[in-house]
Amino acid sequence: MSETERQRLEGVAEWFSTFDGVNGLIIDYTARYLSDLARGPAIAEMGCADGRMTQTLADRFERVTAIDASATQIDRAKDRMGARDNVTFVNTFFEAMPNDLGLFNTVIQAHILEHVEDPVATLKAGADLLIDEGILIAQVPHAMSLHRRIGVAMGLIKSVTGLSKADQKLGHRRVYTKKALVADATAAGLQVIDDGGFFIKPLSNAQMETWSPDLLSAFFEVGRTMKEYAAEIYLVLRRKQ
After folding, report:
1. Residue 127's CATH number
2. Taking burial as the number of CB atoms within 10 A of a residue's CB, which of 43, 84, 177, 212 is the most buried?
3. Cβ of 96: how many Cβ atoms within 10 Å?
């Protein structure tokens, strides 16, 4: 991986935190939801950032390996987690993961595929970490989210798959429809065994900062029954049999 890519990631890490504002609540909900989908006892979290989801996984599973390409984020995650016997942190690009990580019942790639240069290669790298009956959970922001549709109607983005200013600031390279996500998973040699969505997001994160946790939770739950409009979508995958 190029030094340019490393610098790009560290540039985002300088200001991004999963512990800020409404984004933190979204990650808490995501962590609980994906944990319910996951199978233990061993979990690999590809893209742990500063460890907010890692905390939930560590509370629920016997062994968690948290992987991130940003040394800054790994250091923050270690500081926040403290001494946890069941968590191992690994600072590496996904394309260069060491061979001694072991195998896992579940690999989680949450908000990763929209960032990476080669999402198919990232999915393959995750699949290589699975036991024979293991699952990979790939979760991404949804192009067809209600707030993106509204953004198009207001002229803020040209199309639902267009990159907004917020996307660009976060280092997003793409915005997924379900069809595009399934296509990448298929190209990686994976098959879909479940899919879904959650969180109806009518406005931007900044516009929802004053909303109560109870109101946000209600929007999360409603999104589970309206996945065609949900802000977050996921696939549960396994290697093709």
Report:
1. 3.40.50.150
2. 43
3. 9
Q: Which amino acid is at 171?
A: G
Residue by residue, DSSP assigns 47-82 as: --TTSHHHHHHHHH-SEEEEEES-HHHHHHHHHHH-
End-to-end Cα spacing for the chain: 31
CB 199, CB 232: distance < 8 Å = yes
The size of the chain, in residues, is 241
Residue-wise DSSP of 127-152 = HTTEEEEEEEEEEEEBTT-HHHHHHH
Sequence-separated (6 or more) residues with CB below 8 Å from residue 148: 142, 157, 160, 164, 175
Domains contained in the chain, number: 1
Q: What is the pTM of this model?
A: 0.93
**2 within 8 A of 30, measured Cβ to Cβ:** no
List the domain range (segments joined by +) for residue 15.
3-239
Mean pLDDT of all residues in 28-33: 92
Q: How confident is the model over 200-234, as pLDDT tens digits?
A: 999 888 889 899 989 999 999 999 999 999 999 99
